[in-house]
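If you are new to this repository, start here. Below is one unmodified record pulled from the training split, so you can see the exact layout before writing a loader.
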Amino acid sequence: MSRLAVQPRLAAPGDPQPAAAGRAAMVHLDDVVRVFGRGDGQVRALDGVTLSMARGTFTAIMGPSGSGKSTLLQVAAGLDRPTQGHVHLAEHELVTMNERALARLRRERIGFVFQSFNLLGALTAEQNVALPARLAGRRLPRSAVRDALDRVGLGERRGHRPAQLSGGQQQRVAIARALVGAPSVVFADEPTGALDTRSGRAVLALLRETIDESGGTLVMVTHDPSAAAWADRVVFMADGRLAGELQAPSAEQVAERLTGLGA
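And here is the target side for that same chain:
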C-alpha cells in the first residue's frame, strides 16, 4: 500500500482539522464534555473535544486505556449524550433529538461494528444481516441482504450459522449487517480485537475497500497500531482531550506516538 509510505505530519491539538478541509464534515463534535459521577468520584471522560470527520474518510481513534476514545465514539454515534457541547451527524444535531428520533437516525444513517460479533447463533448469516431491519419493522429485499453478503465474500455461506463460521467470517457477517442499509457513517469499536492477525488484516482490508468504493465515512477505535495504519488519519487522545494526530501513518509511526502518550 503506497499511501503508508507517506511521511506524516504530527498535528498539535489546536491545529485546524486537515481531514475536513475541502470536504463537508459527516461527523462533527464541538467543545464536547462528558462527565460521569459526582463529587469526588467525578470523571471527566471527554474534556472540551472539538473534532471533525469528513465524508469519505477513514479515521482511527487511539489512546491509552481511560483516554476517552470509546466514550468519544459512543457520543459521536448518538449512543450516549454529552454533558455539554454539540454533536452533528451531517445536518442533524444529535444533542437536541429525542430518543425516538435518535433511534431512527441510527437505523437509517449509521452502521455499527463491535469487537464482539453480536450474532444470534440460531440464525443463519442471511438472517443475522436482516435482523436489525426486521426488529425496526422494516423488511429488506432478500436481494439487498444477499448483495451485502456477496460484498464481504460470504455469498455462498449465507445459509450457515455462526458456529459454522470462523471468527473472521463472523465479523464479516457483522460488517455486512452494518452495511446493508447503506449507512452514511460506520462506527467500529475494536473490530479486529477478537481476531487473529490474518483474519484481522482481511477485515481491515474489507473496511478500507468499502470506504474507498462507497464514499462513506468510517470511525474506528483501536488499540492496535497495525489496524490504525489502514486509516487516512489517526487521532490520539489522552485524559479526555485530543493529543495530536497523524496523516496516513505507518504502524511504526503510530506505535512511536502511542509510546509518547504512555500507552
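Two things worth knowing about this chain: The first strand starts at residue 25 and ends at 36. The two ends are 26 Å apart (CA to CA).
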